[in-house]
Write a structure and sequence with these properties.
The protein has about 190 residues and is α+β, with helices and mostly antiparallel strands. About 55% of the residues lie in helices and about 15% in strands. Helix 3 runs antiparallel to helix 4. The radius of gyration is 22 Å and the shape is elongated.
Length: about 190
């Protein structure tokens, strides 16, 4: 058998791990740090006509001033559902409905809320770590199958070490992102 039959697609493994880090960056962007940003609404899904829809697909999101986000909801029938989704999102923002526009005043962060947000950031980071480890597990499963199909012990060890090195690097990247985000949240 040629060695080519046992190549493990580390590019695919790395791409999937990078996807977990990309998702973490998006989640971090949604965490409020005291300034208004349209990205805080990105993870919010609204039940719309029987399916979950990202909030930004139901209206125009604007940031007219540093401490205010507005959503101009296109379909008036969706205003109450959008408002409810924001209230239940855990962002700690109290939406105010003004006709088709929902105003989200961004309150100053107090110490307690900052600590709460750092815990949320830590949860997001842990989800990303779990995703990376799941991709690692998939890679290791590929290796087991390749070994069963005749991969040499040395080759198995080499691929195994490469996957582990990749995993360690991605988890380090997640830890650095978390550290940076927590410092940003705690900054007054």
């Amino acid at each position: 058998m040629s060695d080519d039959n046992h190549d493990i697609d580390t590019d695919d493994i790395e791409r999937r791990m990078d996807g977990a880090i990309g998702a973490l960056r998006t989640e971090f962007a949604s965490l409020r740090t005291g300034r208004a940003s349209a990205t805080i609404l990105e993870p919010i899904q609204v039940e719309s006509y029987g399916q979950m829809t990202p909030l930004n697909q139901l209206g125009t999101v604007n940031v007219p001033e540093p401490r205010m986000v507005t959503i101009n909801v296109w379909d008036r029938a969706m205003i109450s559902k959008v408002e409810k989704a924001i209230r239940e999102s855990g962002l700690g923002i109290n939406p105010m409905v003004d006709g088709p526009i929902i105003r989200l005043p961004i309150p100053e962060l107090n110490e307690e809320r900052r600590r709460e947000l750092t815990r949320v950031a830590a949860q997001y980071a842990e989800h990303a770590r779990v995703s990376v480890r799941n991709v690692r597990r998939d890679g290791m499963d590929q290796l087991k199958r390749a070994k069963a199909a005749g991969m040499s012990e040395d080759e198995h060890k080499l691929w195994s070490e490469e996957i582990q090195t990749l995993t360690d690097a991605k988890i380090d990247a997640i830890d650095k992102l978390l550290e940076t985000k927590q410092a940003e949240i705690m900054q007054i």
